[in-house]
């Protein structure tokens, strides 16, 4: 189906936004929203010590009802970090990865069994520096509607989806305060049924939603 024929208005807005910001070089095409990438609320690691990672924002093409959805994972309770939290598929850069996209695709295949031939990369966001010492590059992609996903039982407790329209609606997000490095820090979160999407995952998605909103209002 041609992209302009999709019925999901949120997806059409996103595709138009990415088309307008396309670039021929390898640099990220969208800067992160200042509110979610500011470093004043914690002591950020020095740039030289950052570890590279990538996540995939996998958008399932609209279904018969015309609704596009994002794939999320619920991390296993047995993991050493971020156990039981909602995340996007992704992970650390491997020596065999040629670039950020390769990392996102490899990790998605390992975590949820998403085959790269079912994926069409349509954009990247700028790097997000995390207090944990990771420099994360989000990669945006469309994936085929007919999918069979197989979660890695060691890493993933559950796979679920949320409507793209919900994620791109700024009114879906709320703010709360947590303690980090003995200081209060404001975080973004979004609730979808029994799932709480927060932390870096919410920051990445809010950044995209904020930029898309600014573009549509301009």
TrEMBL record:
Claim: Magnesium is one of the keywords in the record: yes
Which co-factors does it depend on? Mn(2+); Mg(2+)
A Pfam family (short name) is NUDIX
Nudix hydrolase domain residues are 50-184
- Which UniProt keywords are listed? Hydrolase, Magnesium, Manganese, Metal-binding
Does the record carry Magnesium as a key word? Answer: yes
GO MF, one example = metal ion binding
Q: Which domain of life is it from?
A: Bacteria
PANTHER family membership:
MITOCHONDRIAL COENZYME A DIPHOSPHATASE NUDT8, NUDIX HYDROLASE
What protein does this entry describe?
Answer: CoA pyrophosphatase
The opening ranks of the lineage are: Bacteria, Pseudomonadati, Pseudomonadota, Gammaproteobacteria, SAR86 cluster
């Amino acid at each position: 189906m041609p992209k302009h024929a999709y019925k999901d208005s949120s997806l059409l807005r996103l595709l138009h936004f990415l088309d307008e910001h396309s670039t021929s070089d390898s640099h990220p095409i969208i800067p992160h929203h200042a509110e979610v990438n500011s470093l004043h609320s914690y002591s950020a690691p020095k740039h030289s010590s950052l570890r590279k990672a990538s996540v995939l924002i996998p958008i399932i093409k609209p279904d018969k009802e015309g609704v596009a959805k994002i794939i999320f994972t619920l991390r296993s309770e047995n993991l050493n970090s971020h156990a039981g939290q909602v995340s996007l598929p992704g992970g650390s850069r491997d020596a065999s990865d040629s670039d950020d996209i390769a990392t996102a695709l490899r990790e998605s295949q390992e975590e949820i069994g998403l085959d790269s031939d079912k994926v069409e990369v349509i954009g990247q966001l700028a790097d997000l520096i995390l207090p944990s010492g990771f420099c994360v590059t989000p990669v945006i992609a469309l994936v085929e509607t007919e999918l069979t996903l197989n979660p890695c039982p060691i890493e993933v407790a559950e796979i679920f989806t949320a409507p793209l329209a919900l994620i791109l609606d700024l009114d879906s997000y709320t703010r709360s305060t947590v303690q980090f490095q003995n200081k209060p820090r404001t975080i973004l979160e979004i609730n979808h049924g029994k799932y709480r999407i927060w932390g870096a995952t919410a920051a990445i998605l809010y950044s995209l939603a904020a930029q898309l909103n600014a573009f549509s209002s301009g």
